[in-house]
Amino acid sequence: GEDVEQSLFLSVREGDSSVINCTYTDSSSTYLYWYKQEPGAGLQLLTYIFSNMDMKQDQRLTVLLNKKDKHLSLRIADTQTGDSAIYFCAERPMDSSYKLIFGSGTRLLVRP
Amino acid sequence: NAGVTQTPKFRILKIGQSMTLQCTQDMNHNYMYWYRQDPGMGLKLIYYSVGAGITDKGEVPNGYNVSRSTTEDFPLRLELAAPSQTSVYFCASRGRQGITDTQYFGPGTRLTVL
After folding, report:
1. Nearest CA among B98, B95, B57 for reference residue B76
2. Which of B45, B102, B107 sits opposite A48 (nearest CB)?
3. What does the pLDDT average to over B37-61?
4. Residue of A nearest to B94 (CA)
């Protein structure tokens, strides 16, 4: 079945790198996404990667995709206190282009 | 563009009451969605719509109804509210970003049923 799993919590010191991990089960997924949810707000798209790519870099964000292991990661370089939020990964299955399957979210806490 | 807007932001209901959560988008998107987010959990799809006049059930539709009479509006109706419906409700619409489609989310409605 479709399932996306993430660890629940990550704490890092300001200026360090953060790595948030995600595993998914649908190998036919076409796109994988990272969303950020700040307190009291809806989800906002941070970045995405197409399934035929291994890596995508976007300023401080690096997405790594290991299709063989169905593992997705988001690295945030030079993490700032403003990066404290919940991060969701999501997959878009090939057979359901309208639908996204979300993980349960990883709460990132950045300590000064 | 205002994007996706939702009202109200907060609401407390008594068991058995009914209410409608409003959602409007001004991006002319065809696809719209309703999700619920329970504490520590991901998003569960309640209903979605692929265009005006067309709606379909998601993973957790029981206890809810939707309608889509216009492209802009996608209200979610709760009949006979139950404590299990205490949650944060997000509306989203789907549109183009870069080379992919993605979902744009409203700010959410926090609902408590007592």
Report:
1. B57
2. B102
3. 91
4. A98
Distance of alpha carbon B61 from alpha carbon B23, whole angstroms: 17
- Phi and psi for B63 in degrees, rounded to 5? 95, 0
Q: Residue A73: which of A111, A24, A1, A28 has the closest Cα?
A: A24
pLDDT band at residue A92 under the 50/70/90 scheme: confident
Please give the structure tokens belonging to residue B36.
């619920």
- Nearest CA-CA partner of B38 in B89, B102, B79: B89
The tokens describing A52, both together, are: 């035929």
Strand partners, A23: A5, A71
Which residues of chain A make contact with B90, given a CB cutoff of 8 A?
42-43
Whether A39 has its CB under 8 Å from any CB of chain B: the answer is no
Would you say residue A101 has pLDDT above 80?
yes
Burial of B86 (0-12, 13-18, 19+ CB in 10 A): middle
Residues B43 and B97: their CA atoms lie apart, in Å, by 21
d(CA A107, CA B64): 29
Pair A48, A57: CB distance under 8 Å: no
Q: Are A7 and A105 in contact (CB under 8 A)?
A: no
Nearest beta carbon to residue B97 from set A8, A45, A105: A45
Give the confidence band of A52 by pLDDT, cuts at 50, 70, 90: confident
Beta strand B109-113 with B10-13 is parallel
8 A C-beta contact, residue A43 and residue A32: no
Which residue do the tokens 């000064």 mark? Answer: A112
